[in-house]
Design a protein that fits this description.
Blueprint lengths: L2 E4 L6 H8 L3 E4 L16 H6 L3 E5 L11 H20 L5 E4 L9 H17 L7 E4 L12 H11 L5 E5 H6 L7 H9 L4 E3 L2 E2 L10 E2 L8 H11 L3 E3 L6 H11 L2
Parallel strand pairs: 1-2, 1-10, 2-3, 3-4, 4-5, 5-6, 6-7, 7-10
Antiparallel strand pairs: 8-9
Helix pairs in contact: 4-5, 5-7
GO molecular function, one term: phosphoric diester hydrolase activity
Protein name: Deoxyribonuclease-4
Family: Belongs to the AP endonuclease 2 family.
């Protein structure tokens, strides 16, 4: 089982991975709050050749579900661009948030927009790396927040080999119990390709997304370890940097 971290040092992620004892790293290829095409990574060849697993996270602004053309069309483009960049660094996937529609819009529109995107791309040869759709924490009209909506989304896109990234903080804060979350997620998606293993600074069903280190949040550490053991997938902690090494050690010792 690969256990690692989201690293902040975009210039030399492998050095930071070594510092925290990570054997998988998650990186951004550009400003996570921007729309610009990612530039070539200065260590692309080194990352691709490394024994350290690599996964890329798409910018937070990407919202493939949006009914607004001025958001949806750039979102499709930036996902495609980051998938191409992810291939260059040897990544095994690109994490993309499920997105949302606005308060007065039907979430079915967002689900249909996801289907149109992945269906069209599938017809054009697929993405450069697998898309790993991530569950999210808040928003009543989010298409991947609560698992009932996730089920509707997967009914629409599952046939196109989209992967799934399970975020524990997001699930907890969206009101999904973690004791059986892996079984319920797999019943919907048939797979878990990556776990974002994060504790939460906030209470259950808070709809807030504030990560905490494993030993300092509102989720019991042993519950988080059990999620990792059950998922059997690569794990990335997106926790505060000063505690990442300890988080990784804890999971290696308790999630077998």
């Amino acid at each position: 089982m690969q256990i690692g971290a989201h690293v902040r040092d975009a210039e030399d992620p492998l050095a930071e991975a070594a510092e925290v004892g990570a054997d998988v790293v998650q990186i951004f290829l550009s400003d996570p709050q921007g729309w610009k095409k990612p530039p070539p990574h200065p260590r692309a060849a080194e990352l691709a050749a490394s024994d350290v697993g690599v996964v890329v996270h798409a910018p937070y602004l990407a919202n493939v579900a949006s009914a607004n053309n001025k958001i949806r069309i750039p979102s499709r483009k930036i996902v495609q661009q980051h998938a191409a960049g992810a291939k260059e660094v040897g990544a095994f996937g690109l994490v993309v948030h499920g997105g949302h529609v606005t308060r007065d819009e039907d979430p079915a529109v967002g689900i249909d927009n996801w289907r149109k995107f992945v269906e069209r791309q599938s017809g054009e040869g697929g993405f450069d790396v697998p898309i790993l759709l991530e569950n999210t924490a808040g928003g009543d009209n989010a298409v991947a927040r609560r698992f009932d909506m996730l089920g509707r989304l997967w009914d629409a896109i599952g046939e196109f080999d989209v992967g799934f990234c399970l975020d524990t903080c997001h699930a907890f804060c969206s009101g999904e119990e973690l004791t059986d979350v892996v079984d319920r997620a797999k019943a919907i998606t048939g797979r878990i390709d990556l776990v974002h293993l994060n504790n939460s600074r906030d209470e259950f069903d808070s709809a807030r997304d504030r990560h905490a280190n494993i030993d300092s949040g509102t989720i019991e550490p042993e519950v988080l370890a059990a999620v990792v053991a059950a998922a059997g997938a690569p794990v990335v902690v997106e926790t505060p940097a000063e505690g990442q090494a300890q988080d990784i050690r804890y999971l290696r010792e308790n999630a077998s």
